[in-house]
Amino acid sequence: MATRKELANAIRALAMDAVQKANSGHPGAPMGMADIAEVLWNHHLRHNPANPKWADRDRFVLSNGHGSMLIYSLLHLTGYDLPMDEIKTFRQLHSKCAGHPEYGYAPGVETTTGPLGQGIANAVGFAMAEKLLAEQFNKPGHDIVNHRTWVFLGDGCMMEGVSHEACALAGTWGLGKLTAFWDDNGISIDGHIEGWYTDDTAKRFEAYGWHVVPNVDGHDPVAIEAAIEEAKKVTDKPTLICTKTIIGWGSPNKSGSHDCHGSALGDAEVAATRANIGWNHDPFVIPQDIYDGWNARTKGQGSETLWNNKFAEYAAAYPAEAAEFKRRMAGELPANWKEATAALIQATNEKAEGVATRKASQNAINALAGLLPEFVGGSADLTGSNLTNWTGAHHVHGKKPGNYISYGVREFGMAAIMNGMALHGGILPFGGTFHMFSDYMKNGMRMSALMHQRVVYVLTHDSIGQGEDGPTHQPVENTSGLRYIPRMDVWRPADSVETAIAWVAAVERSEGPTSLVLSRQNVPGIKHDDAQLALIRKGGYVFSDVAGKADVILIANGSELDLAIKAAAVLTEEGKKVRVVSMPSTNVFDRQDQAYKDSVLTPGVKRVAVEAAHPDFWRKYVGLEGAVVGIDTFGESAPGGALFKHFGFTVDNVVNAAKSVM
C-alpha cells in the first residue's frame, strides 16, 4: 500500500516530467503543493470522476493556474477521463492539458485560470451560488444543495487587486463553505518576494471577516488535516489556510527558488529529483499501488448515488421544486419562455415609449424577472444609475441571501464573481456599471467569453451623452473594444423595443456573454412593424428604405439612429434616395449569411455610419470611400445635448457626410 508521501510524489513526478517533455511550464507549484493536494483530494473533496457534472459535487479551483500540472495530475490519478497520453501532450496543440487549465477541455476543470486572482474570485462566485441555491431549494430534511468550494492560490493571486475585491465580499457574505489554501512559498517569477510583497496576509483576511488558520506546514499531512477540520467547523465565515511550502519541493538544487517557478528543471535536475524523493520509475510511469491509492471512482460513485437517493426523496416530496432545480442546473429556459417574451416584445412595441435605453432595460428586467427565478442581478455601486434592480428584488445584505447584489465599487470583482456563479450553474447573473468602467473589468468580461459563459453586462451612460461628469466618464473607444472580444455579443439598442429584444437574445444565448450598451438620455419611442420585429434579432436591419437603388445608406445605432432618420428626411426632401439601417449589434449581424447582409448593406452603394464612438471600427462597413460621423478624441464636461452639438452629432453634419460620399 502506497504511503501518503509516495502518493504526493506521483504528482511531483508527473509535473516535472510533463514540463520537461514540453520544455515549457511551471513545475514548482505542483511540487510544492502536492502534499496539500493529497490530503484534500483523497480525504475531503466530494467528487465523482465518472460524472464531472454531478450537481452537488464540491468545486475545486486552482487559482494559481500556471501550476496546471497539479490539477491535471490529480484528475488523471483519481480516475477522470484524462489518459496519460494527454498528460504527455501537455501544452501541445489540441491537448486537453493546455498551458493553463481551460474550462471545457479537461473534464473536472471547473474554471479557466491563469490570469492571477480571478480563480479565487470565481471561487467566491461558486460559493455564493451554492449559498443562494441552498436558500432557494433546500427544505427541512432535504439538503439537496450542500457542497463546498476549495481553492488553491499563490502569492500572485494575493497581489492582484481582484482578489481583494472578491475576498472582501466573501467575508461580508459569510461564505462558510469556501476554503482557500494560500501557497505561501515566498517566490514569484522575479525571485524572493520580500522586496515587493510585505502584506500581513493573515491580518488582511481577518479584516475581511475570514477565519484564518496561520502557519500550517504545507508538507505535513497531519497539520494540513487539522487545518481542514478546523475550517469545516467554522460555518459563518470563509477560511484561509496559510500553508508554508517550499516551491519545487524535492528538487535538490532548485527548490525554494524562482529557478523552478516557470521553466523546466532540466534533465539532470529531474534525474536528481527522482533520486532525492525515491521515485524509481520511468517518466510517465505510475505503479498500480499508486493508482489504487488515488482512485476515487468507487468512492465518488457512492457519494453521488447517496445524493441521487436524497434527490429522489426530495422530488417525491417537492416535485415542482425538483423539476425547477433540474431545469436551472441544465441551463434550460422555462417552458413558457417563447410565448412570454413574444408578449413582452409586443407590449413594448405597442407602448413605443420614449425613454432612455437604460430605463427600457429596467422595464425588460422587470418583465423577465418573473419568468427567471435564476436571475441574480447587481451593480457596482450604481444601481440608481444603471437601473439594474426590479420590483420584488431582494437585496443580499451582509450574510442574508437574496437575488440582487450591491457589489460596491468593485467592477472587476463583480465580473469574476459573476463568472463563478454562471459556471456553477443554476444562476443567470447580470451586473451593471457605467460603460466607461467596463475597462476595470475587461479581463473578467474576456474570461466570460473565453469560457462560453452566459453573463450579461449592463453598461449605461454609453457615450458623450453621459454629460457633465466629463471625459473621465465618457466612453469613446470602449464599445469598439468590447466588439473585438471573440464570442462577446454587444448590443447598443436605439429604442425600447430593440432593448427588450436585446435582453431576450442575451438570455437565450447559451454560448457566451452579452454587453448591453445603454444611454443615459432619452431616445424617441418607435413602433416597428412585424417584419422589423423579426429582423432586429439579426443584429442589423433596414429601418427605412426607398424604391429602387439607394444613393446612400446611413448606418446608425443607439441614440444616433434618430439623427440618421432625420438626416434621411432632409436628403429625401432634396431628391436623394436614402436607406436607413439600424445596427444594434454588429456581432450578431456579422453572423448572418451573406445574402442577408447584402440585402441590408447593398454592395456598391456608398455608406455613412453614425455612432458617438471611435470612427475606425466602422470602416469595415463603410470602406475607405465611405464616411463615419464619430468621435476620435476625449469628450468634455457639459450637458449631453451641448456635447453632441459640439462634437458634430447633428442632422446637418450627417447630411453633409452623406453628400460627401455621393
Topology:
Layout: H1 4-22, H2 28-43, E1 59-62, H3 68-78, H4 84-88, H5 118-137, E2 149-154, H6 155-159, H7 161-173, E3 178-184, E4 187-188, E5 191-192, H8 201-208, E6 211-217, H9 221-233, E7 239-244, H10 267-277, H11 288-294, H12 297-317, H13 319-329, H14 337-351, H15 357-369, E8 375-379, H16 383-386, E9 404-406, H17 411-424, E10 428-434, H18 442-450, E11 456-460, H19 478-483, E12 489-491, H20 496-508, E13 514-517, H21 530-536, E14 541-544, E15 552-556, H22 561-573, E16 578-582, H23 586-590, H24 594-600, E17 606-610, H25 619-622, E18 627-629, H26 640-646, H27 651-661
Parallel strand pairs: 1-2, 2-3, 3-7, 6-7, 8-9, 8-10, 10-11, 11-13, 12-13, 15-16, 15-17, 17-18
Antiparallel strand pairs: 4-5, 14-16
Description:
The strands form four sheets. Strands 9-8-10-11-13-12 form a six-stranded parallel β-sheet, sandwiched between helices. Helices cover 44% and strands 13% of the residues. The chain is built from 27 helices and 18 strands. The longest helix is centred in the middle third of the chain and has 21 residues, at 297-317. It is of the alpha/beta class. Helix 2 runs parallel beside helix 3 (68-78). The mean pLDDT is 98.
